[in-house]
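Proteins fold reproducibly. Consider a sample protein:
=====
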Amino acid sequence: MAYKNTQNFDHQQPDKTGVLISNLGTPDAPDRASLKRYLKEFLSDPRVVEFPRLLWWLVLNGVILNIRPQRSAKAYQKVWTEEGSPLALHTEQQAQKLKERLHFRFGDSLHVEWAMRYGNPSISKTLDKLMAQGVRKLLVLPLYPQYSASTTASTFDAIAADFTKRRWMPELRFCTSYHDYGPYIESLASSIKAHWQEHHKPQKLVFSYHGVPLRYLHNGDPYHCQCHKTSRLLADALGLSPDEYMTTFQSRFGREAWLQPYTDKTLEALPEKGVTDIQVVCPGFSADCLETIEEINMENREVFMEGGGKSFSYIPCLNATENHIDMLEQLVDKHLSGWDITAQSTTQRHEFFQACEHNQKSNS
């Protein structure tokens, strides 16, 4: 097997530290062809769909990829901006602001890049960039606060699979979740309180998280438990009583049972129970995307209002706000603890390289 070499490798290149933040992914454009390409990569991941592979291949390629891309393209067209995909835009802004913060402190000793698990920029190409920059210590930070095998573990799979093909892999650290991390809870609470000051405190606050099949919970996935813990901690930080908030799950797919209660069914039924003033926030999303903008703030808003609701307000994700970047910087600091991020000087690297050459000649 021919292993992948680092481009323009130089033994005298100073060692660097890298931070790779990643998110789920997005199509390149809101059209059928781009969605088909994106959905094929996404839905072919065995972490995302745990189903017998041959049978799923037939269903995916024979049915889903012939129907869903056109429908998904129409949804993406509703949220697409002049700069492109909202998720890509927010993630790039998060990476840029985090890069500025860390560069101010560490200079060129530390590099920050961003990637998407599916779509572009790909994890593999981004790792190429980091390795070419001399990164020998790497922190991977998937922007999923709550761990799930279908998201966080899938990112690890992609990282691990890439490094099995490389000649030199860096010292690696991986953040699996930060669902109960104090600064994360505080940044969310501050965002919600700011929304209340601008609008009002609602009759009920709905925490809506992305769903996963119910069997994942029964098979040991901690996602459901971590979502509820985030909700409890947030409610405590906001001073909410149990009847002032609730946790729901959105974005189910297929016919099998997913985590409940379902967001859409819950919002449809709330007005009949006397709850007509709600606000929805999505703590499991680090950046606004199709699922928050189109599904929650468009589709579910309509469901609630048509069901008899009187006031619906969506509280945006943390995106690239200063509170969020503060939190991400603290989280990165926590995971970089113990690493010496001072790059070796060119002189040190030159001395090391000369010593290697001397030993090689002595052994010849």
Q: What stands out?
A: Confidence is low (pLDDT under 50) at residues 343-353.
